[in-house]
Design brief:
This protein is mainly β and 136 residues long. It has 1 helix and 8 strands; from the N terminus they run E-E-E-E-H-E-E-E-E. A hairpin with a 2-residue loop joins strand 1 and strand 2.
Length: 136
């Protein structure tokens, strides 16, 4: 049974630009590719870990200007970049691990997503790269 609760307040930087003040949600999914190693005599499927598999999905309040969300995301669309993300704005520790994803890639970006009477939101999804978890 869980004995603690956690109020999320993630910190997010993309290409060294801090998005934390305009980020509504951040989701980091890590894992590995599943490679089958089943041989002729086996009675069930057997697997081994392959390459790392990483996805970062950010939901951001859109803004326009030289150093704002639209310009920053346009600059990283279609190029390899680095993302640093942690669950809280505090110093990294065992209870606040920091993940650095290098070589991730955002293949598409929708710079205008408007609905009458609502704040403009954009979603940025980065795939691939490799991650390192830091607790020090």
């Amino acid at each position: 049974m869980a004995t603690t609760t956690f109020l999320s307040n993630a910190t997010v930087t993309v290409n060294s630009v801090d998005y934390s003040d305009q980020c509504k949600s951040a989701t980091l999914t890590v894992g590995v590719d599943q490679l089958e190693k089943t041989a002729m005599g086996d009675t069930g499927h057997l697997y081994v870990a392959g390459l790392q598999n990483v996805t970062v999905a950010l939901e951001l309040y859109n803004s326009y200007g030289a150093a704002e969300i639209e310009a920053s995301l346009t600059a990283v669309c279609g190029v390899s970049t680095t993302i640093v993300i942690s669950p809280s704005g505090l110093v990294e520790s065992a209870s606040n691990p920091e993940y650095t994803i290098t070589g991730c890639f955002m293949p598409t970006f929708t710079p205008i997503a408007s609905t009458v009477g609502e704040l403009s939101m954009v979603t940025a999804t980065f795939n691939g790269g490799s991650y390192a978890r830091d607790i020090v």
